[in-house]
Structure formats: C-alpha cells, structure tokens
C-alpha cells in the first residue's frame, strides 16, 4: 500500500478522569499516526481506552495532555486550538455508528444530504451528492425510504453514505459491523477499504469483530490505556 | 432543510393529537376569558342600555342595582324641569320567575315610559311597545319570539319585539314592559311577608314608586353641577353614569369577577405547565438524535431552531384550534361568552412567551447533551 498524507497525528496523548484516589487513566502517552488510504482497527478489552481515543480523534473529548493534528492542522496542544469543533468535525471527519443512528424523521436521501445542508451547500447539490453516494453504495433505490423501513445492511450503507457526504478525509467508525452478519460485515469493510483508497481518506475503526480483522491494514491493540502493539 | 417540519411530518398523528389536546385546553382558557368579559359586559349592559348620563335614586342608597331604591314616579317631572336636562325617564327593575313552554323562566322585568329614556336600546325583530298595557319587548335569550304570550303576575303579556344583550348581572334576560304595568306588577307579586306587614296596619309601599329616574343632559351641561342640584332635594341622590358603572362593578359583580379572574389565572398557569411539559418531553425523546446531529457537525442554532420551531408550531396550532372551537360553541354557553380580538391576541402573546420559556428548558437539556452519547449504539 502506498503511504499517503499523514491525516491523524496523535502525540503523547493522555487522558485521565478524576483526581487523587479516584483518578482513572483512560489513555497514557499514546502515539498514533494514520495516513491517507489506511484502514486501521482499534482493539482491546472493555475499558482499554479505544473509545476514548476515538472520541479524542473525533474532537469530542479533550485530552488531558498531548498534541493532536488532523489533516495537517494542529487542533489540540494542551487546549483546543479551534473554537468551532463542530465545524471541524463537519469538514474533516465522518462518523459511522454501531447502530447507524440515522435520523428517523428523514428519508435515506435526506439523512445523507443533511450533512451538506449543515455545511451550507444548496439543496440541489446535497440531493445530487446523496443520490451519487447511495447509488454507489447500491441503495439508491431506497432513497425515498425512512430508516424504519430499511434492513440492517441498507441502513448501515446509508450511514456510510452520510459519513462520506462532505468528503471527509478521516472516517471514524464505532463497531460498524456489530449489527451485521459476517458476509455483510465483510462486504461493508471491503466497501470502506475501497472508499478510503478512492477518496484518499483514512478509516479508524473500533471493533471486536474477529471475522473482519483481515480487512485492516493495521490492528492497534490497547490495554489499560496504553498502545500495546501496532502491527499489520 | 427544515428539520422541525420533517420531524412533525414523521409523527404527524401524534403531533396533531397533542395540538388538539392543547387546543381543548386553550378552548377552556378562552371560554373563561369570554365568561369573565361576558360577566362584566352583562352587568354593564343594563346600565349602559338607556344611554343615560345621570341616575336619580333614593337618598342614602346606591340604587337601583347595588341597593334597592324607591322614589316617587313624579320625580321625573321635577328632574325634567331642571336646567341642563335634555331627556329623562322613570324606570323600574325587578326579577321574577314565570313559566314559558312548560319551563321555569327567570326574567329581569324593566318598566319604562314608552317614548322616554329607559327602553330597549335596539330591536332585532318586531316593533316597540305600542299600547299602554300588556305588551312586552323581550331579550332573545328568553327564547320568546314576537307573537308569543307570557304570564307576568296576574296578566298575560304579548311579546311584540325582540332585543338582545339585555340582562342583569346574574345573567337573567330582560323583558321590557310599560312603566304602568311594571308598577302594577310590583304590588301584585308582593311577597307574603309584605302582605302580612300590610295586614298588621303598616304603611303599604307606595303604588306609584319607581326605582330611578334617568336623564340625559344638554351638550353644554355639567353633570356634576346638575347632580349637586338634585342632591339638594334631601330625599334624592344623583349618580353619574360612570359612578353607576363603577358601583356596579365594585359591589355587584366584583366577587364573581375576582373568582373567575383567579380561576383564569390558575388555568393559564396550568396551561403554561402543560405546554412546558409537552415541549420538554418532546425534546427529551429526541436527545439521541440531537447528539447525532451535534456529532455530525450541526451548530447550536440548528438544534435551537428544531426545538423552538416545534414549540411555536405546537403553541400556535393549539391556540388556533382553541379559538376555532370556542367561536363554534360560545353561543351554546348558558351565559354570554364575550371574546374581543384583543383577548385572542393577548393569549397568543402569552402562548408565545410560554412556548419560548418552555423551549428554554428543552434547549438547556439539548445543549448539554454530549455528542459522544451518539456513539456506542
């Protein structure tokens, strides 16, 4: 795999909750670099710090110490360097959730175009982009359907389309295949790999699903808040 | 993309049902406002109807509505001759119960001199009283129509005309008869105690007394000056029209008015709590979706717009339904429900404020939601 731009650069990041006897160290001096085109998995037992790391990369949780750079832009260095973190997420990061979290009152197409609407794009542009992504993910025929009428696989593909709508270069996925059977899970991962390559994006996934481990470029193990191993 | 409208459309039935429930509550609020206004308007209608400027009553009383007043009927001649008096008329008031179409009917009988002040302000059907005896003009709420006959005391009266909005502060519809008939009626229907008193040899009440004399003044006359002149006759007192109105509101309907006013206040408070609860619950049910929106980058104004717009649509719809319902059913209330455009506008203003305050609670909860709650299924 050709190494692309450095999209995620986490340096000496630590995160603790509480102080004194109640202090819990969720992450300890973690370093992580992810390049464009890479698809990596964060693995580890419950409480190992993988969700905390995902939240820090997603600019949802502030680290206690360390430095974070996303797509070449320093975003945290002891404190947030930008005030508009939501705009940062909107522009640079796509999220894929375990339970897809589609908005139930919007159609599949609107669930995708809402991201572009929030980004200030016109309705026509949003609609065209949503159609393009849904067709690409082979759920274009389900565009006018509400999430409650989509199958698990269809809903997950719509959620992927939403994550890609604004062409983010960083895609964070939290157990994206947890609700899918093994065949569908592998199809989704193949699709994510393909998208990462085509859009020069990186994908960071929290997963426990061993059936899809072979679809990752790297498996990052976390235990007690430390990076244990980073291997292909 | 209007997320508020999309969300409403998604659960339209539930939203409409909530609006309808709120609408019913608004109907009750508007009904109470209308009843409150109606009470005041009814009380004042009977005072305003003769379009008088001066009320001449028995000295030492605040008659004829707040207290009983009895003065000789010829007082009208004396008053009419005073400088500054343009028109005058003697008038009597009494409440009696009779039967109409097999049902008990309480009536407020007003006796007046035909062709003088004190008669019905306007007619909506039939004609004015044209003979000296046994003709009547009734308020339409009596249920009578021209041509009907009704027994008052010992005599049967023919209804020759209809008027409207003529009733006493208790809501009893008025019936107008000639002064002569009304004076006769006063003695004919004297209570038993009065007859016992007469049997004991006590002085019988004068058979030619009226409750008040009302007068209208010349354009350049000073009402206080004329009233002061009348008060020099020691057996009479004089009240201006505004005195009479204030007296009626302060002493006759004040307690009922305050009672309804208090109930209205409680009802508005309950409505505010209900609206707040509905909006807060609607928001709490959407917290996961709000967290998702925040996570994918929605700014606070989008979340704010979602909640505030829904709150205002809910409040506006409830208000609209409430107003429509009360306008449809207000004439079926036993007492007058009087709604002014200003009342509906003020209620709309209150609802907007309540919705915005209620939204504040929801917005506070929504803005505190951690976007991370959208992660992890």
TrEMBL record, chain A:
PROSITE patterns tied to this protein: ABC_TRANSPORTER_1 (PS00211), ABC_TRANSPORTER_2 (PS50893)
SMART domains registered for this protein in UniProt: AAA
One of the record's GO molecular function terms: transmembrane transporter activity
CDD domains: ABC_MJ0796_LolCDE_FtsE
InterPro entries given in the database record: AAA+_ATPase, ABC_transporter-like_ATP-bd, ABC_transporter-like_CS, ABC_transpr_LolD-like, MacB-like_ATP-bd, P-loop_NTPase
Annotated Gene Ontology cellular component terms: membrane protein complex; plasma membrane
Residues that span the membrane, as ranges: none
Residues covered by the ABC transporter domain: 8-232
Classification via SUPFAM superfamilies: P-loop containing nucleoside triphosphate hydrolases (SSF52540)
Keywords: ATP-binding, Cell inner membrane, Cell membrane, Membrane, Nucleotide-binding, Transport
Family under the similarity heading: Belongs to the ABC transporter superfamily. Macrolide exporter (TC 3.A.1.122) family.
This protein's name: ABC transporter
Species assigned in the record: Pseudothioclava arenosa
Automatic annotation (TrEMBL), chain B:
Domain MacB-like periplasmic core: from-to ranges: 16-232
Membrane topology (UniProt): Multi-pass membrane protein
Subcellular localization(s) per the UniProt record: Cell membrane
Segments forming a coiled coil: none
GO CC term (a single one): plasma membrane
Transmembrane segments: 12-36, 260-282, 303-329, 341-363
Domain of life: Bacteria
InterPro entries from the UniProt entry: ABC-4/HrtB_transporter, ABC3_permease_C, MacB_PCD
Record flagged with keyword Cell membrane: yes
Keyword set, alphabetical order: Cell membrane, Membrane, Transmembrane, Transmembrane helix, Transport
ABC3 transporter permease C-terminal domain location: 262-371
Short name of any one Pfam family annotated for the protein: MacB_PCD
Protein name: ABC transporter permease
Species lineage: Bacteria, Pseudomonadati, Pseudomonadota, Alphaproteobacteria, Rhodobacterales
